[in-house]
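Figure 3 (text version): structure tokens given as input.
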């Protein structure tokens, strides 16, 4: 991981980002990785070169608790872990004013590429706006699962 989740929001450690277990809307159970005051930047090492064509990433929004969807998600790939190529960008469609606790899987689909490493970057919402009860404080990104296919 190139970003660090908060200690209280680190689930079962980095492996829980790829263990196949999806978090629920009850984020207090501890299945989510929470990033505040930073973008999420997670690198997956697949062990060997593989052909991939999509990346699915689970996010949660609970606006009242300062948890907002990332504004966008970018996917990069690499063969050697040093030279990276951006292959997809997905823009979030859930409005920040949506007060219903919800989960969403952002899916990046692209023509098949060979990769040994995949990096997912999610852009943090930033400072909560004036209308929000936490105005002036930094929002969180909550992520639970990354699936590379």
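Below: residues designed for each position.
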């Amino acid at each position: 991981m190139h970003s660090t989740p908060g200690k209280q929001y680190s689930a079962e450690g980095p492996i829980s980002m790829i263990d196949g277990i999806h978090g629920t809307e009850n984020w207090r159970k501890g299945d989510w990785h929470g990033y505040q005051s930073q973008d999420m930047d997670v690198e997956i090492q697949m062990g060997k070169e593989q052909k991939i064509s999509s990346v699915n990433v689970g996010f949660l929004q609970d606006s009242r608790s300062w948890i907002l969807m990332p504004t966008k998600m970018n996917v990069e790939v690499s063969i050697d872990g040093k030279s990276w190529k951006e292959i997809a960008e997905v823009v979030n469609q859930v409005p920040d004013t949506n007060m219903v606790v919800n989960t969403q899987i952002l899916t990046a689909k692209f023509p098949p590429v060979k990769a040994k490493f995949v990096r997912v970057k999610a852009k943090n919402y930033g400072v909560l706006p004036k209308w929000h009860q936490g105005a002036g404080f930094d929002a969180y990104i909550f992520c639970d699962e990354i699936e590379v296919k």
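The longest strand covers residues 40-61.
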